[in-house]
């Protein structure tokens, strides 16, 4: 077998669902898009700010020849099945944590797997390597598309034919030359369901997102939740899955159920318990999952906002107590949530 087939075989053996190869040539079309987005102030703080670095892989690894792209599905059986989601009636005081954030932190899981792949390649072919998962300088969806893993839908998410968009992406940049794959046809049918389902208009137009209006972003910011988005958050505690849930390409997808992603203890979803979450419980339930990276008070603040939206009489007293909370963001949010009871 040649090196490419060896890498594919090994990667699948260790649980990486999709592998594709592309050149390390610059992403010229994407550069135009990013420059336009920068001019419109649409680059979020979660992105590398240097557009040159993002669009030219050689700037991340001098002499780079190949980007090996990986996708790993994160749906597990303990999460509501996709079909059950729309009909599932959550208890009145249960908050939503998006699926990607309920599983073990993908930065850790995927980076470790990619390190195994690098070790494997190094034994066969000496070279230089750079692993990228999310926080790196590459535009990951564009790389994955060029490597033939799938397509970008109108909701700006990346889809693979088998797993839909319930996937994480990661890459290995290397100076080893490997035959590239070609990109595949998009299955996005332009139905527009994602754009019309978005609660805030963050999907400004097909394929164009305003990250500052995206509820996924809003649940992750520090400080106060901007007034405009508080009601739109509904019962969301972390992340947002709405534009993925409505997509026909995400129905009847394979559920890979990778055991690596199954959390040791499922995250609490009862909003009243989340609102008063202790440091100890936070560490136990949130430290190892993506929902935990912004800390305990961001989760508590979001839960208090959700309680304000649910307006259950039973939680009024709890909210009153929380107006005296040591955390300023929780106190302020509790005041708003109580105020929201008056807006019937
Ligand atoms: C910044 C960021 C965010 C921001 C902005 C999202 C976004 N769509 O860019 C926020 C915080 C909102 C976010 C949310 C989410 N994210 Co995020 N995010 C990133 C990050 C760090 C950069 C993304 C980026 O480069 N955006 C820049 C814009 C320009 O890219 P784009 O919107 O895809 O634009 C392309 C096309 O839409 C098109 N296009 C753009 N404008 C135009 C205009 C026209 C006219 C046309 C025709 C085309 C077109 O061309 C562009 C270039 O290819 C990546 C990791 C990485 N380093 O790449 C993860 C990443 C994209 N996120 C990921 C995840 C899991 C999510 C969430 C699903 C989490 C959740 N459930 O809450 C949501 C999904 C929200 C959504 N609808 O996209 C995964 C991808 C999952 C997937 N299947 O797509 C990534 C890859 C992380 C990872 N390593 O797994 N994210
Ligand atoms: S994740 Fe939610 S808020 Fe963000 S674009 Fe999709 S539907 Fe809109
Ligand atoms: S909901 Fe429709 S338009 Fe949006 S990504 Fe899916 S197929 Fe494309």
UniProtKB/TrEMBL annotation:
Keyword Cytoplasm: yes
Entry superkingdom: Bacteria
Residue stretches in coiled coil: none
Stated name of the protein: 4Fe-4S ferredoxin-type domain-containing protein
Single GO MF annotation: 4 iron, 4 sulfur cluster binding
InterPro entries: 4Fe4S_Fe-S-bd, 4Fe4S_Fe_S_CS, ARM-like, ARM-type_fold, QueG, QueG_DUF1730
Family matches, as SUPFAM superfamilies: alpha-helical ferredoxin, ARM repeat
Taxonomic classification: Bacteria, Bacillati, Bacillota, Clostridia, Thermosediminibacterales
Keyword tRNA processing: yes
GO BP: any one term: tRNA queuosine(34) biosynthetic process
Protein keywords: 4Fe-4S, Cytoplasm, Iron, Iron-sulfur, Metal-binding, Oxidoreductase, Queuosine biosynthesis, tRNA processing
Domain named 4Fe-4S ferredoxin-type: residues: 179-208
Pfam families in the record: Fer4_16, QueG_DUF1730
């Amino acid at each position: 077998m040649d090196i490419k087939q060896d890498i594919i075989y090994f990667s699948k053996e260790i649980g990486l669902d999709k592998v594709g190869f592309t050149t390390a040539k610059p992403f010229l079309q994407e550069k135009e898009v990013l420059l336009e987005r920068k001019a419109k102030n649409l680059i979020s703080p979660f992105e590398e700010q240097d557009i040159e670095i993002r669009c030219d892989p050689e700037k991340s690894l001098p002499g780079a020849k190949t980007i090996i792209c990986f996708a790993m599905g994160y749906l597990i059986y303990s999460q509501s099945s996709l079909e059950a989601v729309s009909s599932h009636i959550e208890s009145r005081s249960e908050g939503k944590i998006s699926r990607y954030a309920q599983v073990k932190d993908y930065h850790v899981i995927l980076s470790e797997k990619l390190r195994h792949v690098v070790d494997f390649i190094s034994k066969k072919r000496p070279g230089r390597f750079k692993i990228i998962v999310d926080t790196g300088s590459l535009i990951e969806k564009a790389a994955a598309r060029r490597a033939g893993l799938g397509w970008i839908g109108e909701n700006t998410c990346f889809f693979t034919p088998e797993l839909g968009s319930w996937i994480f992406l990661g890459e290995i940049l290397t100076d080893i030359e490997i035959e590239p794959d070609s990109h595949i046809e998009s299955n996005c049918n332009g139905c527009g369901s994602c754009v019309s389902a978005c609660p805030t208009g963050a999907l400004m137009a097909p394929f164009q997102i305003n990250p500052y209006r995206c509820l996924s972003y809003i649940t992750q910011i520090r400080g106060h939740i901007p007034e405009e988005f508080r009601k739109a958050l509904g019962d969301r505690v972390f992340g947002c899955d709405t534009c993925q849930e409505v997509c026909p390409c995400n129905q009847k997808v394979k559920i890979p159920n990778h055991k690596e992603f199954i959390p040791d203890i499922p995250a609490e979803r009862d909003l009243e318990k989340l609102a008063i979450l202790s440091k100890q419980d936070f560490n136990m339930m949130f430290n190892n999952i993506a929902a935990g990276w912004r800390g305990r008070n961001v989760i508590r603040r979001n839960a208090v906002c959700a309680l304000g939206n649910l307006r259950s009489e039973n939680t009024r007293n709890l909210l009153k107590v929380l107006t005296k909370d040591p955390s300023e963001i929780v106190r302020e949010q509790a005041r708003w949530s109580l105020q929201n009871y008056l807006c019937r």
